[in-house]
Design goal:
about 20% strand; 10 strands; D-Maltodextrin-Binding Protein, domain 2; about 325 residues; alpha/beta
């Protein structure tokens, strides 16, 4: 028996066939089909930027797609963070987050989006110690000399911005050493380091990659590192504890986050590429040069870590009675 289809039925079948052939594959198969933007909430030239660019170079190989680093400095890192919080949760806009916008800023600013609620922590990349450096404006050679000088006069320090790792680490140094300091925030470590070299500020507690070349050239002087152990790249520089500030340690950490709602398969692919990047000999060598160590915190473990950090730095902020207008 022959089946005869009406003209309208044939038309409907044709449309359905076209629709089916045009259906996309799963997000896992397609992603990434266009460049992924990795937002850095600070100016180029600082520690976060250095880590981000080293990570992006290997990450795009593991992800098998182009990755573009996009610097969005401003508002102590809140501007770049806001860009990602508002982005479509499709995996094409990611953030290199650090403790400033992620866990310190909520204690200082009225943020439009709380990072703990608006962002999805995918994986922590690295943890890096900082270094206390002085420029030509201040003639001191050791951390005890810096502390003694600060008790005689008000010293001015620069940071990568309000609530940045360099800011809160210096707050903690001041509290630990019992000294009062004057803060000048910048839009990233790069501009602050430029003013340090130019003699416009006295000292900084900053990321190793932002000043390692200047230390080696003798342009700035390293007084101490902030880790529990000495940094292999600066073996003659003592830790702050060795230099006479008991119990003082601080670090800068970096992680990959995206807007809430990234599809599970896309998120899994980002996490897998991140894990592979953290095992890459080239990236591991880059981290070592920058005074950083890779992290193994992913997903919920990274979120728990950030919650603990939020409490810790909240206490430092409260003790310092920070006011940002």
């Amino acid at each position: 028996m022959k089946t005869v289809l009406s003209r309208s039925s044939l038309l409907a079948l044709g449309v359905a066939a076209i629709a089916l052939t045009g259906l996309p594959a799963t997000a896992q198969d397609d992603y990434p089909s266009k460049p992924v933007t990795l937002v850095v909430a600070y100016a180029a030239g600082g520690g976060t930027d250095a880590i981000a660019r080293g990570f992006a170079a290997q990450f795009e190989k593991e992800l098998d797609g182009r990755v573009i680093v996009d610097n969005r400095p401003g508002a102590a890192g809140n501007m770049g963070t806001e860009v990602v919080a508002k982005a479509d949760p499709d995996g094409y806009t990611l953030l290199i987050g650090n403790q400033g916008p992620m866990v310190v800023n909520p204690h200082i600013f009225k943020m439009r989006h709380d990072p703990a609620e608006a962002l999805d922590p995918i994986a922590m990349i690295a943890d890096a110690q900082l270094v206390v450096v002085v420029g030509p404006r201040l003639e001191v050679k050791t951390l005890p000399e810096l502390v003694a000088k600060a008790k005689e006069q008000v010293l001015v320090y620069g940071s990568a911005g309000n609530a940045s790792a360099s800011h809160v680490a210096t707050l903690l140094l001041g509290q630990s050493a019992g000294i009062d300091l004057k803060h000048v925030p910048y839009k990233g470590a790069g501009p602050a380091v430029n003013d340090l070299v130019g003699g416009h500020i006295d000292f900084m507690v900053t990321t190793v990659p932002s000043v390692i070349g200047l230390i080696e050239a003798g342009t700035v002087t390293a007084l101490a590192v902030t880790g529990a152990e000495r940094f292999p790249g600066l073996p003659d520089v003592p830790t702050a504890i060795e230099a006479g500030v008991p119990g003082y340690t601080a670090s800068a950490w970096y992680g990959i986050l995206g807007p809430k709602g990234i599809p599970d398969d896309v998120r899994a692919k980002i996490a897998a590429a991140t894990s592979a990047t953290l095992k890459s000999p080239d990236f591991l060598a880059k981290l070592e040069t920058d005074g950083a160590v890779p992290s193994d915190l992913v997903g919920p473990a990274f979120a728990d870590f950030m919650a603990t950090e939020r409490t810790r730095w909240g206490e430092v902020v409260k003790a310092a009675d920070i006011k940002v207008e």
